[in-house]
Design a protein that fits this description.
Radius of gyration: 21 Å
Structural class: mainly alpha
Protein name: TetR/AcrR family transcriptional regulator
CATH superfamily of the largest domain: Tetracycline Repressor, domain 2
CATH class of the largest domain: Mainly Alpha
Distance between the termini: 69 Å
Pfam family, one: TetR_N
Strand content: under 5%
Organism: Antrihabitans stalagmiti
GO molecular function: DNA-binding transcription factor activity; transcription cis-regulatory region binding
Largest sheet: none
Oligomer: single chain
CATH architecture of the largest domain: Orthogonal Bundle
Shape: flat
Order of helices and strands: HHHHHHHHHH
Number of domains: 2
Keywords: DNA-binding, Transcription, Transcription regulation
């Protein structure tokens, strides 16, 4: 006779005050990661949220767990945006739509680019999102290339490289020209587009030499 294994106990819902604290912690971490990147500490999050550091540790055992909690939705949204791009009837505009979404969100959120650079097997909470995102991006690229809109030697891996290039200039110029990334976004797209197709308009001007020097000083100051 086979003995039936006992059912696993149901997860108890959080008390109202615990749920409120968890939401405050996540919102505080989201704000700090966006403005300061991933170098913040759990103590920083506790102070920003107005809770004790012990409360943060009860909800998130370490910073990696908190990072996953904050950015899981961001990354899931990216996978969804790649799928939405495939619904655009124009293959090139679908690619531009997705590329602009990614670059804009990374330009507005310092920690997001850092998270995307560290997505690996150790972050199992992101594994299923990667499984959705990478094939969806490949379809967006393949569709534009098959339609003759994208240069024939462009690959999905190029997309991930180019968004990080745009993110680098966004981070570099953040304090002096926060929209200049759009200029290089357009230049990058021109590098990917088939030769016979029209170029992207450059709607944002370059940084001045003074802004370049100021941006260098700001970056050096952050890294000291």
């Amino acid at each position: 006779m086979t003995t039936k294994a006992p059912a696993a106990p149901a997860t108890r819902p959080l008390r109202a005050d615990a749920a409120r604290n968890q939401q405050r912690i996540l919102e505080a971490a989201r704000e700090l990661f966006a403005t300061r990147g991933l170098e913040i500490t759990l103590d920083d999050v506790a102070e920003h949220a107005g809770v004790g550091v012990g409360t943060v540790y009860r909800r998130f055992s370490n910073k990696q767990d908190l990072i996953a909690g904050v950015f899981e939705k961001h990354v899931d949204d990216m996978a969804g945006q790649a799928e939405l791009a495939l619904d655009n009837p124009d293959p090139w505009q679908g690619l531009v739509q997705f590329f602009e979404y990614m670059c804009r969100h990374m330009a507005e959120n310092r920690g997001l680019g850092e998270v995307l650079m560290t997505l690996d097997g150790q972050q199992t909470r992101f594994a299923c999102v990667r499984e959705r995102m990478e094939p969806a991006v490949t379809k967006v690229i393949d569709r534009a290339r098959d339609a003759g809109e994208l240069r024939p030697d462009a690959e999905a891996q190029d997309f991930f490289a180019t968004i990080h290039m745009v993110d680098w200039i966004a981070d570099f110029a953040r304090t002096v020209h926060p929209e200049v990334w759009r200029r290089y976004f357009s230049i990058m797209l021109d590098g990917l587009r088939a030769d016979s197709r029209p170029r992207q308009p450059l709607t944002v001007g370059p940084m001045t030499f003074e802004q370049v020097h100021e941006a260098k000083s700001a970056c050096f100051g952050r890294r000291r």
